[in-house]
Design goal:
This is Cell number regulator 8-like. With 229 residues, the protein is mainly alpha-helical. Helix 5 packs antiparallel against helix 6, helix 5 runs parallel beside helix 7 and helix 10 packs across helix 11. A two-stranded antiparallel ribbon has the order 1-2. The termini are far apart.
Length: 229
Protein backbone atom coordinates (compact mmCIF):
# COMPACT_ATOMS: atom_id res chain seq x y z
CA UNK A 1 0.00 0.00 0.00
CA UNK A 2 2.79 2.44 0.88
CA UNK A 3 4.61 1.68 -2.37
CA UNK A 4 1.42 2.31 -4.41
CA UNK A 5 0.89 5.68 -2.71
CA UNK A 6 4.53 6.66 -3.41
CA UNK A 7 4.17 5.72 -7.07
CA UNK A 8 0.96 7.72 -7.44
CA UNK A 9 2.61 10.67 -5.71
CA UNK A 10 5.53 10.60 -8.18
CA UNK A 11 3.16 10.48 -11.13
CA UNK A 12 1.16 13.45 -9.79
CA UNK A 13 4.34 15.44 -9.10
CA UNK A 14 5.66 14.81 -12.62
CA UNK A 15 2.72 14.12 -14.97
CA UNK A 16 4.94 14.23 -18.08
CA UNK A 17 7.39 11.65 -16.79
CA UNK A 18 5.26 8.70 -17.80
CA UNK A 19 4.62 10.23 -21.26
CA UNK A 20 8.34 10.80 -21.87
CA UNK A 21 9.14 7.24 -20.96
CA UNK A 22 6.68 5.94 -23.56
CA UNK A 23 7.77 8.43 -26.22
CA UNK A 24 10.21 6.99 -28.79
CA UNK A 25 13.81 8.08 -28.50
CA UNK A 26 13.84 9.63 -31.97
CA UNK A 27 11.03 12.01 -30.96
CA UNK A 28 12.65 13.12 -27.73
CA UNK A 29 14.36 16.47 -27.62
CA UNK A 30 18.03 16.13 -28.39
CA UNK A 31 20.64 17.60 -26.15
CA UNK A 32 23.11 20.16 -27.52
CA UNK A 33 25.80 17.49 -27.56
CA UNK A 34 23.59 15.26 -29.71
CA UNK A 35 22.34 18.08 -31.91
CA UNK A 36 25.78 19.39 -32.84
CA UNK A 37 28.45 16.91 -33.77
CA UNK A 38 31.14 19.28 -34.98
CA UNK A 39 32.29 22.86 -35.27
CA UNK A 40 33.02 25.02 -38.27
CA UNK A 41 36.20 27.00 -38.86
CA UNK A 42 34.47 30.10 -37.45
CA UNK A 43 33.75 28.37 -34.16
CA UNK A 44 30.04 27.83 -34.88
CA UNK A 45 28.32 24.52 -34.16
CA UNK A 46 27.52 22.36 -37.17
CA UNK A 47 24.19 20.57 -36.90
CA UNK A 48 23.33 17.15 -38.26
CA UNK A 49 22.68 17.22 -41.97
CA UNK A 50 25.44 19.72 -42.69
CA UNK A 51 27.91 18.23 -45.11
CA UNK A 52 31.41 19.60 -45.27
CA UNK A 53 32.37 20.43 -48.85
CA UNK A 54 28.78 20.72 -50.06
CA UNK A 55 28.74 22.84 -53.27
CA UNK A 56 27.45 26.39 -52.88
CA UNK A 57 24.53 27.26 -55.18
CA UNK A 58 25.66 29.30 -58.17
CA UNK A 59 24.52 32.88 -58.50
CA UNK A 60 23.41 34.69 -61.62
CA UNK A 61 25.23 37.45 -63.44
CA UNK A 62 24.38 40.97 -62.36
CA UNK A 63 23.40 41.86 -65.92
CA UNK A 64 22.61 39.93 -69.06
CA UNK A 65 24.65 39.86 -72.25
CA UNK A 66 22.18 42.13 -74.07
CA UNK A 67 22.03 44.73 -71.27
CA UNK A 68 24.57 47.00 -72.94
CA UNK A 69 23.81 49.99 -70.70
CA UNK A 70 23.68 47.91 -67.52
CA UNK A 71 21.25 48.71 -64.74
CA UNK A 72 19.90 51.99 -63.45
CA UNK A 73 21.90 51.96 -60.22
CA UNK A 74 24.89 53.79 -58.79
CA UNK A 75 27.12 52.03 -61.36
CA UNK A 76 25.35 53.82 -64.22
CA UNK A 77 28.33 56.01 -65.17
CA UNK A 78 30.66 53.02 -65.02
CA UNK A 79 28.30 51.00 -67.23
CA UNK A 80 28.29 53.81 -69.79
CA UNK A 81 32.09 53.81 -69.77
CA UNK A 82 32.15 50.04 -70.28
CA UNK A 83 29.71 50.31 -73.19
CA UNK A 84 31.78 53.05 -74.81
CA UNK A 85 35.04 51.13 -74.44
CA UNK A 86 33.48 47.94 -75.77
CA UNK A 87 32.21 49.75 -78.85
CA UNK A 88 35.28 51.86 -79.64
CA UNK A 89 38.29 50.17 -77.99
CA UNK A 90 37.58 46.55 -77.02
CA UNK A 91 41.30 45.94 -76.50
CA UNK A 92 41.32 48.51 -73.69
CA UNK A 93 38.24 46.98 -72.08
CA UNK A 94 39.68 43.46 -72.28
CA UNK A 95 42.98 44.57 -70.75
CA UNK A 96 41.13 46.38 -67.96
CA UNK A 97 39.03 43.29 -67.24
CA UNK A 98 42.06 41.01 -66.99
CA UNK A 99 43.92 43.51 -64.83
CA UNK A 100 40.98 43.84 -62.46
CA UNK A 101 40.45 40.08 -62.39
CA UNK A 102 44.08 39.38 -61.58
CA UNK A 103 44.31 42.36 -59.20
CA UNK A 104 47.90 42.87 -60.34
CA UNK A 105 48.85 46.24 -61.79
CA UNK A 106 50.96 45.87 -64.92
CA UNK A 107 49.07 43.06 -66.65
CA UNK A 108 47.00 45.52 -68.65
CA UNK A 109 49.69 46.24 -71.25
CA UNK A 110 50.52 42.59 -72.01
CA UNK A 111 46.93 41.47 -72.56
CA UNK A 112 45.98 44.63 -74.39
CA UNK A 113 48.88 44.27 -76.85
CA UNK A 114 48.17 40.59 -77.52
CA UNK A 115 44.52 41.33 -78.10
CA UNK A 116 45.33 44.25 -80.39
CA UNK A 117 47.65 42.09 -82.50
CA UNK A 118 45.03 39.38 -82.98
CA UNK A 119 42.41 42.02 -83.67
CA UNK A 120 44.49 43.59 -86.45
CA UNK A 121 45.43 40.24 -88.00
CA UNK A 122 41.84 39.00 -87.95
CA UNK A 123 40.46 42.15 -89.56
CA UNK A 124 43.25 42.26 -92.15
CA UNK A 125 42.94 38.62 -93.21
CA UNK A 126 39.26 37.82 -92.71
CA UNK A 127 37.62 41.22 -92.53
CA UNK A 128 36.31 40.76 -88.97
CA UNK A 129 37.58 40.11 -85.49
CA UNK A 130 37.76 36.30 -85.70
CA UNK A 131 40.99 35.58 -83.79
CA UNK A 132 40.75 37.67 -80.61
CA UNK A 133 37.69 35.82 -79.20
CA UNK A 134 39.69 32.58 -79.13
CA UNK A 135 42.19 34.39 -76.92
CA UNK A 136 39.80 36.35 -74.71
CA UNK A 137 37.14 33.77 -73.87
CA UNK A 138 39.29 32.34 -71.07
CA UNK A 139 38.65 35.49 -69.05
CA UNK A 140 34.94 34.71 -69.07
CA UNK A 141 35.63 31.21 -67.79
CA UNK A 142 37.88 32.61 -65.05
CA UNK A 143 35.21 35.09 -63.94
CA UNK A 144 32.55 32.40 -63.86
CA UNK A 145 34.72 30.07 -61.78
CA UNK A 146 36.01 32.71 -59.39
CA UNK A 147 32.61 34.12 -58.45
CA UNK A 148 30.71 30.82 -58.85
CA UNK A 149 28.43 32.26 -61.52
CA UNK A 150 25.82 30.42 -63.48
CA UNK A 151 26.89 29.26 -66.93
CA UNK A 152 24.92 29.22 -70.15
CA UNK A 153 24.04 25.52 -69.84
CA UNK A 154 22.71 25.97 -66.33
CA UNK A 155 20.76 29.07 -67.36
CA UNK A 156 19.21 27.13 -70.23
CA UNK A 157 18.34 24.26 -67.90
CA UNK A 158 16.79 26.69 -65.42
CA UNK A 159 14.67 28.27 -68.14
CA UNK A 160 13.69 25.25 -70.22
CA UNK A 161 14.76 22.18 -68.24
CA UNK A 162 15.71 18.81 -69.64
CA UNK A 163 19.46 18.93 -68.94
CA UNK A 164 19.47 18.00 -65.27
CA UNK A 165 21.08 14.57 -65.69
CA UNK A 166 23.72 16.00 -68.00
CA UNK A 167 24.65 18.78 -65.57
CA UNK A 168 25.12 16.40 -62.64
CA UNK A 169 28.51 15.33 -64.02
CA UNK A 170 30.94 18.12 -63.12
CA UNK A 171 33.39 17.24 -65.89
CA UNK A 172 30.77 17.25 -68.64
CA UNK A 173 29.16 20.36 -67.25
CA UNK A 174 32.44 22.28 -67.19
CA UNK A 175 33.27 21.20 -70.74
CA UNK A 176 29.86 22.38 -71.90
CA UNK A 177 30.23 25.69 -70.06
CA UNK A 178 33.69 26.32 -71.53
CA UNK A 179 32.33 25.66 -75.02
CA UNK A 180 29.47 28.08 -74.34
CA UNK A 181 31.96 30.70 -73.15
CA UNK A 182 33.85 30.37 -76.43
CA UNK A 183 30.64 30.54 -78.45
CA UNK A 184 29.54 33.65 -76.56
CA UNK A 185 32.82 35.41 -77.36
CA UNK A 186 32.77 34.32 -81.01
CA UNK A 187 29.19 35.33 -81.80
CA UNK A 188 28.59 38.12 -79.21
CA UNK A 189 32.13 39.24 -78.55
CA UNK A 190 31.62 42.91 -77.71
CA UNK A 191 28.52 42.23 -75.61
CA UNK A 192 30.39 39.51 -73.70
CA UNK A 193 33.28 41.86 -72.93
CA UNK A 194 30.85 44.51 -71.68
CA UNK A 195 29.01 42.02 -69.48
CA UNK A 196 32.30 40.85 -67.95
CA UNK A 197 33.39 44.45 -67.40
CA UNK A 198 30.16 45.32 -65.58
CA UNK A 199 30.43 42.20 -63.44
CA UNK A 200 34.01 42.89 -62.42
CA UNK A 201 33.38 46.54 -61.60
CA UNK A 202 30.62 45.53 -59.23
CA UNK A 203 32.71 42.89 -57.49
CA UNK A 204 36.39 43.84 -57.61
CA UNK A 205 37.96 47.26 -57.03
CA UNK A 206 40.56 48.39 -59.49
CA UNK A 207 44.07 47.34 -58.38
CA UNK A 208 45.31 50.88 -58.95
CA UNK A 209 43.11 52.10 -56.09
CA UNK A 210 44.49 49.62 -53.57
CA UNK A 211 46.99 52.05 -52.11
CA UNK A 212 49.09 50.75 -49.28
CA UNK A 213 49.46 52.93 -46.18
CA UNK A 214 52.84 54.60 -45.91
CA UNK A 215 54.45 55.24 -42.56
CA UNK A 216 55.89 58.75 -42.47
CA UNK A 217 58.45 59.58 -39.82
CA UNK A 218 58.21 63.20 -38.68
CA UNK A 219 61.30 64.49 -36.93
CA UNK A 220 60.74 66.17 -33.56
CA UNK A 221 60.69 69.94 -33.42
CA UNK A 222 63.59 72.03 -32.25
CA UNK A 223 64.04 72.15 -28.52
CA UNK A 224 65.65 74.98 -26.59
CA UNK A 225 66.91 74.85 -23.07
CA UNK A 226 65.48 77.47 -20.76
CA UNK A 227 67.93 79.87 -19.13
CA UNK A 228 68.10 79.43 -15.37
CA UNK A 229 67.15 82.37 -13.14
Amino acid sequence: MAEDKKLNHDEEASPLLHHQQQQPKAEQQQTPQELFHGWTADGLPMAHGSVMGQPIPRSQWNSSVCACLGQSDHFCSSDLEVCLLGSVAPCVLYGSNVERLGSNPGTFANHCLHYSGLYVIGNACCGWNCLAPWFSYTSRTAIRRRFNLEGSCEALNRSCGGCGSFLEDEVQREQCESACDLATHVFCHLCALCQEGRELRRRVPHPGFNAQPVLVMIPPGEQSMGRGA
